[in-house]
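During the no-cost extension, the postdoctoral fellow (Dr. R.K.) reprocessed legacy sequence entries with the updated structure-token encoder. One reprocessed record is reproduced below for audit purposes.
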Amino acid sequence: MRTIFCCVLVLQLAPLAAWAQTPDFTGAWSPYRGGKGTDPKLAAPAAGPLVLKPEYAKPYEERRALEAESNKRGEQLATQGSQCIPYGVPTMMSVAIYPVEFVQTPKQLTIISEAFSEVRRVYLGVPQAKADDVAPGYYGRSVGKWDGDTLVVDTIGIKPSVPGYRGMPHSGQMHVTERIKLAAADYLHDQITIEDPVVLEKPVTYTLAYKRLPNYEMVEFVCDNNREYVDEKGVVRLQVHDK
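Re-encoded structure tokens follow.
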């Protein structure tokens, strides 16, 4: 009887012991750009090339050129944020200087972006669904599994209307794989690889780096009473209210 009890106790403690050994990403993290004198292991490595198929490359480059011309004139073209539209995956993982918060439990990693209070959920230790069973959305369906000290996150189901990395177009077949790990005690890296057989000539990979923000409390950020609007040329303007 004592032997049976001991076996049951070991089985119950095994998952807890495994959980205790996994890295804990819980907390707020600020985008880390590095700079002069930065340890190269802490800053994000250079991104890989973004190579679109010819039928997508031309309109994409035309759009980028138009954005550059508008910026020179001090006229920013409309973005997701200026139109109160969620950034979605993967862009929400790094918006300007706004931090992100990770809330980690044994079954789920919840990621919250301070910019527009976007939320995505990564379900841990469960299989990915079939693509046809995932309703297209801004965040898709994300599942994760541990590969040593690295959390590998698989995301599908991002609808094509959600701009991708650097505003790239994509199809409903876009597949995002993230490898999230601690580069050091207070530095986090999220290596993102995007595959899309319809739009991309080859997968594109880039890395986001973050620095821990101890004791930081996330600030509410919602697109309420927005004073920006988009004019007929697609330029963001500020609505001036009479006093």
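DSSP finds two helices and eleven strands in the chain. The first helix runs from residue 2 to 21. The remaining legacy entries will be reprocessed before the final report is submitted.
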